[in-house]
Amino acid sequence: MQVLKFGGTSVGTPQRMKEVSRLVTADGKEKLVVLSAMSGTTNSLVEISDYLYKNNIEGAVHVIAQLEQKYMAHVEELYKSEKYKTETRTFLKSVFDGLRAMAKVHFTSFEEKVVLAQGELMSTNMVTNYLLESGIKAILLPALEMVRTDKNAEPDTAFIREKSRRMMEENKGYQIYITQGFICRNAYGDIDNLLRGGSDYTACLLGAALEADEIQIWTDIDGMHNNDPRIVEGTVPVRQLNFDEAAELAYFGAKILHPTCIQPAKFAGVPVRLLNTLDPTAPGTIINNDFIPGKIKAVAARDGNVCIQITSSRMLLAYGFLRKVFEIFEQHKTSIDMICTSEVGVSVTVDNLTHLDDIVGELKKYGTVQVDRDMTIICVVGDLRQENKGFETLACEALREIPVRMISYGGSNHNISFLIHKDDKKATLQALSKVLF
Length: 437
Ligand code: ADP
Ligand code: ASP
Ligand code: MG
Hints:
Blueprint: E1 2-6, H1 14-25, E2 31-35, H2 41-53, H3 57-78, H4 82-102, H5 109-116, H6 118-133, E3 138-140, H7 143-146, H8 157-170, E4 176-180, E5 183-185, E6 191-193, H9 199-209, E7 214-219, E8 240-242, H10 243-251, H11 262-268, E9 272-276, E10 285-288, E11 296-311, H12 321-331, E12 339-342, E13 345-350, H13 356-363, E14 368-382, H14 391-398, E15 404-409, E16 415-421, H15 425-436
Parallel strand pairs: 1-2, 1-7, 2-4, 3-4, 7-9, 8-10
Antiparallel strand pairs: 5-6, 9-10, 11-13, 11-14, 12-13, 14-16, 15-16
The structure holds adenosine-5'-diphosphate (ADP), aspartic acid (ASP) and magnesium ion.
């Protein structure tokens, strides 16, 4: 069994939906297909939510009407028969009526989650109906019944495994099983989601739960590139990544993958293949357990970090100082990404700024605190083991002209990270590409 996920661009028009349907049915083999919302839809739903939070009903209703018009036109293009046109129109109308009804209630984060779920509910309904109209044995398995998070808002993997296996078992004999990416229920049964870009996470969670042969992430580019193609020219696809290398790149900003989606696949030992819907025969990138020594694979960047430096002479020769510092972050449920220590100081980065003021207030008890905002982590990934001499020097050499705030090396065998100001991101990524690749 394979689990295939198609992102927003891959199902972004009726034409693309038809192509995806052809792609998943061509070999006649059974598959679980995870779909995102059509591209742009989740952004429109975020816009609607923003209007509703601000009680700007007129603004919300305007965006809803525009979106409805677009979807109703898609119905005409996608189906041949009146039967499927009517069925899909009726479903979509119920979605848009539901959105309009939101304008009449007190809007909270609970309603927002319901609004954000509609994109995936619509795309999966449309593609399932298209497959059925084309004579394919297809069935829609609701993600809201299979995917759940726990009280810590982490995926409840035991539940997902039990439920997805049971639902597949109870619906044997279909060729294509469709489900929604991104959306889930939380521990209390409310509609929730796995954060933006979360369809990749759904695919990896279900692929792991079902012990799939392979998880395929189909998107609009031919695999993981060796640098951010939105910023650097001339990037090329990396053909193979180790699970740890891919996890690091995803977490540190390679947008092609949701930040935490590799973990379940790694845990279950299911390879992940990144493929291009616009060029289905391109080899893409395979992510597996293999480790190719002696290679630097790729560079990624993640914005929105704050650097906190605590300096104190009390740290000198003292034990327990770091524990006290870390406890403050733990109490505020804020995880630390990068860390560097010296005998009289420690610098850390965080990207969850919810409790920043409280954290800084408490840290001041232990020393002088300096806060630098708008920082970017640049992560160089590949074989950075001690015996692979010279790569860390090359990376540092590339940054000769860049003011570097922190360097973290040796935490794992496969990365070296630099903290720089966000304004230097482009120059840093370009310089690294020039020197490393
Ligand atoms: P989807 O909607 O299919 O999930 P995304 O937009 O989330 O697609 O991810 C694909 C995009 O990720 C690419 O179009 C590309 O611009 C961007 N991207 C950023 N970094 C990388 C990288 N290192 N390799 C490939 N794509 C990347
Ligand atoms: N539709 C969601 C988003 O735009 C999830 C996804 O595409 O992965 O973030
Ligand atoms: Mg994505």
